[in-house]
Amino acid sequence: MGKGDKKTRRGKIVMGSYGKKRPKNGPKINVKKEKEGAS
After folding, report:
1. Over the stretch 1-39, which tens digit does the pLDDT of each residue have?
2. Is 6 exposed, middle or buried (0-12, 13-18, 19+ CB in 10 A)?
3. Residue 14 to residue 8: CA distance in whole angstroms
4. Cα 14 to Cα 17: distance, rounded to the nearest angstrom
5. How many whole angstroms separate alpha carbon 21 and alpha carbon 10?
6. Rounded (5°) CA angle 32-33-34
7. What distance in Å separates the CA atoms of residue 17 and residue 19, rounded to the nearest whole number?
8. SS3 annotation, the chain
9. Distance separating alpha carbons of residues 14 and 21, to the nearest angstrom
10. Of 10, 13, 21, 31, which has the fewest CB atoms closer than 10 Å, so is most exposed?
């Protein structure tokens, strides 16, 4: 396990590859917008 292991996040960073452990697009965060004039 480590820099040479393709299955770990660190290994993927070193090799420059992506996958389930290191997706190109990060997790999507839902932002709720407040309604204007809600009070």
Report:
1. 778 888 888 888 899 888 888 788 867 777 777 776 655
2. exposed
3. 10
4. 8
5. 10
6. 115
7. 7
8. CCCCCCCCHHHHHHHCCCCCCCCCCCCCCCCCCCCCCCC
9. 13
10. 31
